[in-house]
Amino acid sequence: MVGLRAWATRRRSSVLLVLDALGGVSWVALGLLLALVWGSFVGFVTRSEEEDRPGGAAMGPAPPTGRFSYAEEIERERRRLFDVTVLHTNPRALGLVADAPPRRFRVEIPGARVASGPGESQAVASAGTQMGVKLHCSGAGVRCTPLSSERQSVLSRKDVAVWLWEVQAERAGTFSVALTMTSYLRDTDTVLVEKPPLVWSVDAVAPPADDDWLSRARTCGGR
């Protein structure tokens, strides 16, 4: 009888151990199931909120702008630039006369040639990319009309580029001429280098009373 009772006790203990083990597994499984359900619920709520916003999911965190790489690119391109000699018309040598034919203003990056000709002056610009040259005229009755493209590529020291304008004064007086030279990042509007403009005060004189002079001026104007 004693042996039977001992066997029964041991049997009951084994069953309890098995039940305890099964109960532990069940609780673990129940915990995992609850975690999965909660994660799905949170994901659904988040997606619903994003879809309700203007633009939907596009309103999430913005991707990196890349501004640092953009700044690095500009700095790298600036280091590649080199100085070139620029020959340009001396505005005071234009000999402007009121109500006379226009005079030509010329800017040239001459490549190998660096000597100035009659009526020319020199300046220095940064080349090695696309360059823009502008001539600004300000004052009553004066016009600067471009005859060439504002932007041209100067990629090596041997490249030649020429810009032309017609400058005309309708009446006598003093006006301002400013020459601006800009180096751009390739064919974009991003400025790599723009030095302070060259500025001159120029006088346009009144025409003489001799009508024959006016005829001669119209014949040789613009040369």
Structure characterization notes:
This protein is of the alpha+beta class and 223 residues long. 34% of the residues lie in helices and 33% in strands. The chain has three helices and ten strands; from the N terminus they run ααββββββββββα. It has helices at 2-52, 67-80, 211-220, and strands at 82-89, 103-109, 120-127, 129-138, 142-146, 151-154, 161-169, 173-184, 191-194, 198-204. The chain has a five-stranded antiparallel beta sheet, with no helix packed on it. A hairpin with a 6-residue loop joins strand 8 and strand 9. It is elongated, with a radius of gyration of 41 Å. The model is unreliable at 15-19 and 49-65 (pLDDT under 50).
- Rounded Rg: 41 Å
Stretches where pLDDT is under 50 for at least 5 consecutive residues are: 15-19, 49-65
The biggest beta sheet is recorded as: 5 strands, antiparallel
Which strands sit side by side, in order, in the main sheet? 3-1-2-7-5
What's the β-strand tally? 10
- Quaternary state reads single chain
Helix and strand run = HHEEEEEEEEEEH
Which outline best applies?
Answer: elongated
Please tally the helical runs, counting DSSP H or I stretches of 4 or more residues: 3
Instruction: Give average pLDDT, whole number.
Output: 78
Helix-residue proportion = 25-40%
**What is the strand content?**
25-35%
Give the end-to-end Cα distance, rounded to a whole number of Å.
Answer: 138 Å
SS-based class: alpha+beta
